[in-house]
């Protein structure tokens, strides 16, 4: 959220507190599972998110938030993206998780790829 947001001083924010906020999110066609999970979590919190601005990718959402176009729900890994004017706050909600998928070329000869796939 923008550093000037009314909730920016809080350490944790309940999802229901964002009911009247404009959301900046990656559209469903670009991130269907995360998009659906966010919409479902908002519904469970008693509201439908106001989708104000689509973001072409997750890192772009942070830049759009900095520009004051809304707030965004992002995976924790995105908090490494530091943009002036943006703060990250812990969202208190149940069941909101981002699922990831892994793709690799079949029969890739790289030992690094094989080892990574074995760990995954």
Structural features, described:
With 120 residues, the chain is α/β, with parallel strands linked by helices. The protein has 3 helices and 4 strands. It has helices at 32-44, 58-66, 111-119; strands spanning 12-14, 22-25, 50-54, 90-92. The strands form 2 sheets. A two-stranded parallel ribbon has the order 1-4. The protein has a two-stranded parallel sheet with strand order 2-3. It is elongated. The protein starts with 11 loop residues before the first strand and ends with a helix.
How many domains in all? 1
- State the major sheet: 2 strands, parallel
Taken from the alpha-carbon principal axes, the silhouette is elongated
Structural class: alpha/beta
Straight-line distance between termini: 32 Å
Order of helices and strands: EEHEHEH
Number of helices: 3
- Strand arrangement within the widest β-sheet reads 1-4
- CATH topology description: D-Maltodextrin-Binding Protein, domain 2
Task: Please give the number of β-strands.
Answer: 4
Q: Please state the second-level CATH architecture.
A: 3-Layer(aba) Sandwich
- The CATH C-level class name: Alpha Beta
Q: β content, as a range?
A: 5-15%
Mean pLDDT, to the nearest integer, reads: 87
Q: Going by CATH, what is the homologous superfamily? A: Periplasmic binding protein-like II
Report the radius of gyration as a whole number of Å: 16 Å
Low-confidence segments, given as residue ranges, are: none
What percent of the residues sit in helical stretches (DSSP H or I)? Answer: 25-40%
